[in-house]
Amino acid sequence: MADHSHAHAPRPLGGSLLTPFTLLLGVLAAIAGVILLYRLFYGLGAVTNLNDGYPWGIWIAYDVVVGSAFACGGYAMALLVYIFNKGQYHPLVRPALLASLFGYTLAGASVIFDLGRWWNFWHIFWPGYAQVNSVMFEVAVCISAYIVVMWIEFSPAFLEKWGMKDVRQKLNKVLFFFIALGVLLPSMHQSSLGSLLVIFGEQIHPLWQSGWLLPVIYLMTAILLGFAVVIFEATLSSTGFKRQLETPVLTPLSKVMFGLLAAYVVVRVADLVLRGALGTAFAATWQAFWFWVEMACFVVPLALLASESARRSAAKLFISAVLLMLGGFLLRINGFLVGYMTGEGWHYFPSLAELMVTVGLIAFEILAYIVIVRNYPVLPAAQPVTR
Amino acid sequence: MDRRTFFKASLAGGTALAAGAASCPAQARETRPMPPEAVGLLFDSVLCVGCKACVAACKEANGMPMEFSTADQYWDTPLDISGKTLNVIKAYRNGKMEAKDREENGFAFIKKSCMHCVDPSCVSACPVSAMQKDAKTGVVTYDKDACIGCRYCVAACPFGVPRFTYDSPTPQISKCQLCIHRHKDGKYAACAEVCPTGATLYGKVSVLREEAQRRLALKPGEKTEFPRGHLRASEEKALQGAPEGKGAQRRQGWKDDGAQRYPGVAGQYLQHIYGEKEFGGTQMLMLSGVSFQKLGYPDLPPRSDAATSETLQHTLYGGLIAPIAVLGALTFIAKRNVKPEDGEGGQNG
């Protein structure tokens, strides 16, 4: 096998932790913490705009459904590197995995605050309570398992830092199994996040009620988002930490992304045509409007990434990644909120407190990422070899 | 070599997936049938006079708090079902409101409470078995001690029935449970018990359906008799189970108040029993002179969403066959491709 994985072993980045930026992140995270504490004492109604027409708000639709898909970088890269044996992307694995780790762990933690009777949360894992026909059961168990698996997958970075050679060597021998699990589990729950919408039936606008294809559509976009996030994060951390751009590794990655994207657009449109739902896209409704914005976010990158020369442009790669993330975001927000039609008279737009919790969560994720890459071996020490 | 391994890998993964999916195609789940002894309600919009005695009786029987919607909080004025209200009567109004049960320039009353679906979405959605459908009576029940408050049931119900108490730090789901807590005392749903006109009747669904069909067969204006309260209680003896607990009342069983009948004339009905076919059937049946969609009830297909959702889940995960097969293939591939994560060389392959 290719051994370029060792050409640039990951090293701690070092540098100061206290900057105006990290301070801002800390303050935002603290605000979210206070709001969540308030929520525990006064109930969901005290801080959110949730109601019986919209029992799920952005804490589910964004923090969990979008957030976990944004955290698919580790999954997408593991799939590519370890399953499709594309060793040249190895330097991207650890940083992607780290971002995934925080994305998922915080998505998992934030769900607890969205649960009305959170002290009972363990019932999901308990025989006698656990209800295996529920899509929610599958999602909850699978995401919880994946969070554990990711910490194990990432632990070599900690073990290296702490000099625990024995443990690391033992772990190395079985790591392949956890990597396999780490590919299986997201395949399951990312598709099931789509399946959550099946039981909503006709309450979901035809543009997003794809029935049996929901798991396929959500899984394809989860992998696409994983690639997009890797490009997004690689570009941002190159800029943010003043390192050389990783475009030479990202260019072939974007070719894989392009193929998957083309397949996705075909599946998405074919589904609408076959179900006879395409007509509703031409009605003068908010749903139709947001559908077109969503589709544009997938189709524009398809055009942007069509040629090899375009894929070598760091700018085009970055714009495509951002658009794809926006597209995946919209697919999920549209499915769970914009296209959720529960009857006349119900309205929902997140309250300032809800938004601040979500912002604080993202801030905490970025803060934790910075702390870890400065102190633990995550980012490649040497610059990626140019082709 | 990259290309070869790539093809092998994708082939192995694909085969495992296909094998997994193909190995459990027989688990497709149809919409469930109604338990033969199922009990429910018949609501006849034509007989309802909008007195809301049922709303008050429901509150009392279930210990639900008052709910205010007017500036002066004089009395209980719920506008819809909610965390505080399990049953309401709503009015349909159109134009000049000249005649009852007429769609144009008319008005009508409609009851809103749990439909007790034959194949309920809430039961299928609930991850912790807090929502249950009783195997014998078919009553859809809620257990707050099991509930985690995820509100998937609230989101999933096509009738918008389960509601949630957002204003409480220890919230719960609230929904009609057909007064099952009164069954042990030989009492039935409070809404039907107090209904003065018999617009809401309690009884076995099969008996209620007969009554509904009888009314639809009548000519408008024809003289008839309307029962009140509990329809043919004698047919529900089976549901009482063995007499248990103390006191004569518990052993007494259902009181047959079949004698409560009054003469009247048949109204103008739509030839449609709502809840007979919708969504695989519900244990609340409804009759009306005004279209059910105008009264706020959705036009639903005969297949339940629970059946679709569970078929999909079981096809993917039934017996965990597909996931285990895929995991096997992934483990095999990963074992060949994973190199040690450290930077000290790859001697361990």
Topology of helices and strands:
The complex is a heterodimer of chains A (387) and B (349).
Chain A: H1 20-42, H2 44-47, H3 58-70, H4 73-83, H5 90-114, H6 135-162, H7 165-195, H8 214-240, H9 247-274, H10 286-304, H11 308-311, H12 314-338, H13 352-375
Chain B: H1 2-22, E1 39-44, H2 53-62, E2 88-93, E3 99-100, E4 106-112, H3 121-125, E5 131-133, E6 140-142, H4 152-156, E7 163-164, E8 173-174, H5 190-194, E9 200-204, H6 205-217, E10 223-227, E11 230-231, H7 237-240, H8 248-252, E12 261-265, E13 284-287, H9 305-317, H10 321-337
Parallel strand pairs in B: 1-13, 3-4, 9-11
Antiparallel strand pairs in B: 1-9, 2-4, 5-6, 7-8, 10-12
Ends apart, CA distance between termini of chain B: 17 Å
Helix content, binned percent of chain B:
25-40%
Structural class of chain A: mainly alpha
The main sheet of chain B comes to: 4 strands, mixed
Termini of chain A, distance in Å?
Answer: 18 Å
Proportion of beta-strand residues of chain A? under 5%
Radius of gyration of chain A: 21 Å
Note poorly predicted spans of chain A: 1-6
Shape of chain A: globular
Oligomeric state of this protein: heterodimer
- Catalogue the unreliable spans of chain B: 22-26, 247-251, 342-349
Number of beta strands of chain B: 13
Question: How large, in whole angstroms, is the Cα Rg of chain B?
Answer: 26 Å
The SSE string of chain B, one letter per element, is HEHEEEHEEHEEHEHEEHHEEHH
Largest interface: A-B, 80 and 72 residues
Helices of chain B, by number, come to 10
Average of per-residue pLDDT values of chain B: 86
Annotation, overall tally of beta strands of chain A? 0
Largest sheet of chain A: none
Query: Which of globular, elongated, flat, extended, rod-shaped describes the shape of chain B?
Result: globular
Percentage beta strand of chain B: 5-15%
